[in-house]
Amino acid sequence: MNLYGHNNNWLMVDCGVTFRAPLDRLDDQNPSAKLFDMVAPDPVFIENRQESLAGIVITHAHEDHVGAVPALWKRFKCPIYTTKFTAEVLRRKLYMTDIAELVQIIVVDPGTTIDIGPFTVSWLAITHSLPDAHALFIQTPVATVFHTADWKIDFNPITDQPFNAAPFKQLAKMRPTAMVCDSTNALRSGYSLSEGDCELGLLRTIQQCQGRAIVTCFGSNVARLISLARVAAKTGRYMTLLGRSLENMYSIARTTGYWPDELKISHRRDIGYLPKHEVLIVATGSQGEPRAALGRLAGDNHPDCEVEAGDTVIFSSITIPGNEKPIEKMVENLKSKGLNVIQSNESVHTIHASGHPNQEDLSDMYEWVSPKVAIPVHGEPEHLHANALIAKQQGVGTQLVGLNGDLYQLAPSIKLIKNAVKVGRIDITDLNKSIRT
C-alpha cells in the first residue's frame, strides 16, 4: 500500500494482503509468533483522510498488490484504476462481497495517461510473472515519480510482449525526480531468468518422467500454466488443473484473451482413467499447505486422482521463507511413497523463474531512467541497501532507504522523514469472511 501526496490530495498505489503472518513485522522470523490467516497494511492514515483520496491504482493482479481491496474498500470509497486482466481478477473477488456494485473499476489501456486528481498517471507495460503488469509514471506540478511495481527484464515472457526498453529510456528525457523500485532480488547477480528458459527446462524435465508428472507452482503464474500446457502438447500428455486458484486464473486468462485457443485443458475428473505416462497434473500447494491439492494427493485423499510410486512431483516454485518445515514434511511424505521429487534449487534444468529484477536488470533500468533519487522498496533492509548501491553505481545522486511509515519528501526539498506516519498490520481474516454474501 503506497501513498503519494500532493497539495492535500493522495493517490494510493496497490492494496495488498499477505497470508499466515504476524501483526508485528518484527515477528516475521519468530517461529513462536502468533500467525493470522490474512493480514493487510493498517490504512488508518489514509482512512482518516478519505475525502482527500483521489483514487486507487492497482499495478497487477498478485495478492500482495490487490488482495486487500474487498476488505478495505469501504474505508476509501474511491474509484479503482487498473488494466483488463487485473480488473477481471478484482471483479471476481468483489463478486463474493456485498460491495461489488458499489466499486467503480475504471479499465485502463496500456500506454494510457489519465489525470486522477492532481496526479497525471501513465501506464507503462512491463514484464513480470503474470499478464498485464504495469509500471507507472506519476507527474505533479512539483515532482515526478517512476514507480516500477514488480518487474523484471524478460524477452520471452510467454503471456505478454517481450520487454521493451524504449519507453523507459524516454523517461530519462523527462528527468524523473524519483524511481521507486522493486528490490526483491537485489542480492542476486546477473539478469533474472526468462519464463521462456523455464518452459524449456520443464520440457526437458517432463520428457524424462516415466509415470505421472505432477507440477506444483504458484496459482497466479499464468505464464507457467501456458508453458506447462505447451509442454503437455509436446510430450503427448493430457494436462489438468487441481486447485481452485489455478482453475480461476485459467478462466480469467481465457476470458481476457491471454490463453492460446489451441492449448486444451482436460477435466480433472477424467485424469484418473488415463494411462500414467499420458498425465500431467498441475497442482496448488507448492508451499506445503496440507489442504491444497498437492497436500491432498500426498495424503491419498484427493477425490479425482491418486499418485503412485514412480510418479514425479516437480516443484516449479521457490520456498517462501517460513515455509521450509511444511515443504520438507511434504517432500518426505512423497518420497516415502516412492515418488520422485524434483525441487527447483536441486534441478539440473531451469524449472522456476522469479518475476523480480536481479542486479543487472536493476542496473540497466537505473541507467535508462536516470532518476535524481532512488527509493528502493520491497524486501528486507539488506535488499533495499543493495538496490541503493546499484543506483549509486549508475550515477543516481541520492538514495533514500527507509522503512514502512517513513515519508519520502521530493519537493520543495528532498529528504527522508522517519516515522512520519503510523503504520502496522491488521488482521482482516474475519472482516474478509464477513463481507461474503
UniProtKB/TrEMBL annotation:
<feature type="domain" description="Metallo-beta-lactamase">
    <location>
        <begin position="1"/>
        <end position="202"/>
    </location>
</feature>
<keyword id="KW-0479">Metal-binding</keyword>
<keyword id="KW-0540">Nuclease</keyword>
<dbReference type="InterPro" id="IPR011108">
    <property type="entry name" value="RMMBL"/>
</dbReference>
<dbReference type="InterPro" id="IPR042173">
    <property type="entry name" value="RNase_J_2"/>
</dbReference>
<dbReference type="Pfam" id="PF07521">
    <property type="entry name" value="RMMBL"/>
</dbReference>
<keyword id="KW-0378">Hydrolase</keyword>
<dbReference type="GO" id="GO:0003723">
    <property type="term" value="F:RNA binding"/>
</dbReference>
<keyword id="KW-0862">Zinc</keyword>
<dbReference type="InterPro" id="IPR055132">
    <property type="entry name" value="RNase_J_b_CASP"/>
</dbReference>
<keyword id="KW-0694">RNA-binding</keyword>
<dbReference type="Pfam" id="PF22505">
    <property type="entry name" value="RNase_J_b_CASP"/>
</dbReference>
<dbReference type="InterPro" id="IPR036866">
    <property type="entry name" value="RibonucZ/Hydroxyglut_hydro"/>
</dbReference>
<dbReference type="InterPro" id="IPR001279">
    <property type="entry name" value="Metallo-B-lactamas"/>
</dbReference>
<protein>
    <submittedName>
        <fullName>Metallo-beta-lactamase family protein</fullName>
    </submittedName>
</protein>
<keyword id="KW-0269">Exonuclease</keyword>
<dbReference type="GO" id="GO:0046872">
    <property type="term" value="F:metal ion binding"/>
</dbReference>
<dbReference type="GO" id="GO:0004527">
    <property type="term" value="F:exonuclease activity"/>
</dbReference>
<dbReference type="Pfam" id="PF00753">
    <property type="entry name" value="Lactamase_B"/>
</dbReference>
